[in-house]
């Protein structure tokens, strides 16, 4: 096995000849290890799987385990098998790579579900059997099982990937240190092409999604996120301006903001009625009004009462109130709140960072919460429940994070904040006095390629989802590319840890 590692050109021993990776701990149990190596050799010699499919399977297992050495070693092996750099990065991040063949993609989905959920849905099993036959499915299961064992050895001894020009050492049981682990479980629900800035989302009652894409001026449909993740999104409509906020204002009726935020600033409000609509048929959003001429960049939005919208204007540094008319007449606009916390720094930050951005209403406490991205503020303002107007001055909830959008768990008294440039999901108390200044990132710290450019969030609508399961969208680094360029934009299912209001 060490000779195989040397042939693939990944490090299996230190410069002075000491073994690293899984090759070291197996020395503690040589009899079992030698039989295990025989199984590995038999799998390599007699498998019906291609080299590329084998590496897809192995990377899928390594990503589920988040095993650094395994992903390091088989990144090299996958290159040797002919997988592209983009595909390798995406697979190692636990996502379905766009550059895979049909059979390779099925193999990834099959192994990911089997490894993460410990079962395979019937439809996915049938698709995998058509691709690989019964023997191929046995070969996939055997290969995955081998690398579950390898990852158990690596993670059990907390074995890292080797750093360049260093001599990694075997970590014995006596000197192991627990790894810092993400508290939230991230699962890819859908993948979009790179260079798509996913801006906002809503979840429909049937558990499907509508996603606005700012830079491509599009609205996408995502089928319900069933157990057979990921699902495949489809383009629903293309606007004439950048698409931003989308809000469900009555059952299956949505209002969508569009505008030319970086050029002429004209902004529009559209109405989309999906009552009785069937997926695969065209949609026809109705442009119902133009924003007042003083509008600059309508962005986040929320409903605070029936037919009453609040919409953040990121470059006018204010929040609009929009009263929708029950008879379908022209909506009424007025400035709901303007405050210095909502400002931004024109021309000083590249790319330009918005001022007031995400807005969400906490109905139990009658407070509107909002982010001010450029100033790194998370704010709130009381709302008069009778007039629905501000009831006092805005109050600082937390500072120091470049928040974009968020979702609120009023039962736990916390918000889950996306930091678009810091690539995290942060948990923040809704009570200012309970935020100590220590940021609790429940995903993205340490950095993970699964969460590049998170932008918005919404609670799932299945029973028990509120406070526990949310869906987050990312831009894959469209606005701030990581090394190697943007990754696919994503819709993520995020299972959150139990909240404790502290």
List the helices and strands and how they pair.
Layout: H1 2-8, H2 30-46, H3 51-65, H4 68-81, H5 85-92, H6 102-117, H7 122-156, E1 185-194, E2 198-203, E3 209-213, E4 218-222, E5 234-238, E6 242-250, E7 253-259, E8 267-273, E9 286-290, E10 298-305, E11 308-313, E12 318-323, E13 332-338, E14 356-362, E15 367-372, E16 377-382, E17 395-399, E18 403-409, E19 414-419, E20 424-429, E21 440-443, E22 454-459, E23 469-474, E24 488-495
Antiparallel strand pairs: 1-24, 2-3, 3-4, 4-5, 6-7, 7-8, 8-9, 10-11, 11-12, 12-13, 14-15, 15-16, 16-17, 18-19, 19-20, 20-21, 22-23, 23-24
Helix pairs in contact: 2-7, 3-4, 3-6, 3-7, 4-5, 6-7
Overview of this structure, please?
The protein has 502 residues and is an alpha+beta fold. Helix content is 22%, strand content 30%. It is built from seven helices and 24 strands. The strands form six sheets. The chain has a four-stranded antiparallel sheet, with no helix packed on it. Helix 3 packs antiparallel against helix 4. It is elongated, with a radius of gyration of 25 Å. It starts with a helix and ends in a 7-residue tail after the last strand. Residues 164-182 have low confidence and may be disordered.
Highlighted features:
single chain, 502 residues
**Please, what is the average pLDDT?**
88
Q: Classify the oligomer.
A: single chain
| Backbone CA Rg | 25 Å
Helix content: 10-25%
Strand neighbour order, sheet with most strands: 1-24-23-22
Give the amount of beta strand, in percent.
Answer: 25-35%
* Total of helices: 7
The computed structural class is alpha+beta
**β-strand number:** 24
N-C termini distance:
50 Å
> Which spans have pLDDT < 50 for at least 5 consecutive residues?
164-182
Q: Identify the overall geometry.
A: elongated
| Biggest sheet details | 4 strands, antiparallel
């Amino acid at each position: 096995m060490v000779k195989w590692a040397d042939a693939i050109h990944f490090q299996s021993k230190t410069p002075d000849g000491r073994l690293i990776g899984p090759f070291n701990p197996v020395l503690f149990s040589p009899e079992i290890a030698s039989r295990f190596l025989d199984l590995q050799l038999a799998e390599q010699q007699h498998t019906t799987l291609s080299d590329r499919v084998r590496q897809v399977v192995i990377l899928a297992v390594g990503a589920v385990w988040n095993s650094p050495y395994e992903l390091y070693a088989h990144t090299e092996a996958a290159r040797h098998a002919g997988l592209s750099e983009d595909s390798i990065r995406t697979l190692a991040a636990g996502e379905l790579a766009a550059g895979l063949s049909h059979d390779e993609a099925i193999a990834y989905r099959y192994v990911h579900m089997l490894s993460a959920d410990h079962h395979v849905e019937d439809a996915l099993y049938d698709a995998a059997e058509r691709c690989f036959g019964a023997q191929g499915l046995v070969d996939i299961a055997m290969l995955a099982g081998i690398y579950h064992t390898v990852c158990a050895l690596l993670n059990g001894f907390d074995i890292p990937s080797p750093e360049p020009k260093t001599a990694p050492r075997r970590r014995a049981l006596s000197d192991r240190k627990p790894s810092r682990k993400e508290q939230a479980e991230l699962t890819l629900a859908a993948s979009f092409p790179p260079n798509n800035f996913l801006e906002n989302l809503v979840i429909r009652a049937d558990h499907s999604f509508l996603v606005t894409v700012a830079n491509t001026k599009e609205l996408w449909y995502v089928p319900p996120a069933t157990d057979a993740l990921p699902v495949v999104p489809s383009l629903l409509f293309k606007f004439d301006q950048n698409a931003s906020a989308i809000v469900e204002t009555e059952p299956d009726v949505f209002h969508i903001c569009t505008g030319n935020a970086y050029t002429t600033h004209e902004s529009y409000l559209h109405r989309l009625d999906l009552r009785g609509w069937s997926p695969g048929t065209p949609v026809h959003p109705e442009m119902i009004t133009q924003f007042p001429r003083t509008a600059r960049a309508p962005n986040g939005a929320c409903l605070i009462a029936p037919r009453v919208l609040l919409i953040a204007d990121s470059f006018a540094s204010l929040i609009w109130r929009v009263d929708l008319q029950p008879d379908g007449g022209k909506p009424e606009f007025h400035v709901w709140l303007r405050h210095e916390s909502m400002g931004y720094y024109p021309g000083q930050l590249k790319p330009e960072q918005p001022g007031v951005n995400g807005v969400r209403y906490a109905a139990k406490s009658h407070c509107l919460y909002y982010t001010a991205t450029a100033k790194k503020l998370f704010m709130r303002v009381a709302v008069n429940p009778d007039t629905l107007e501000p009831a006092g001055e805005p109050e600082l909830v937390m500072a120091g994070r470049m928040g974009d959008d968020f979702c609120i768990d009023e039962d736990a008294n916390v918000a889950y904040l996306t930091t678009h440039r810091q690539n995290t999901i942060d948990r923040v108390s809704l009570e200012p006095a309970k935020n100590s200044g220590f940021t609790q990132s429940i995903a993205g710290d340490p950095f993970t390629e699964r969460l590049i450019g998170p932008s918005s969030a919404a609670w799932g609508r299945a029973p028990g989802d509120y406070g526990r399961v949310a869906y987050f969208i990312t831009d894959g680094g469209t606005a701030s590319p990581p090394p190697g360029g943007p990754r696919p934009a994503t819709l993520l299912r995020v299972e959150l840890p139990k909240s404790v209001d502290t």
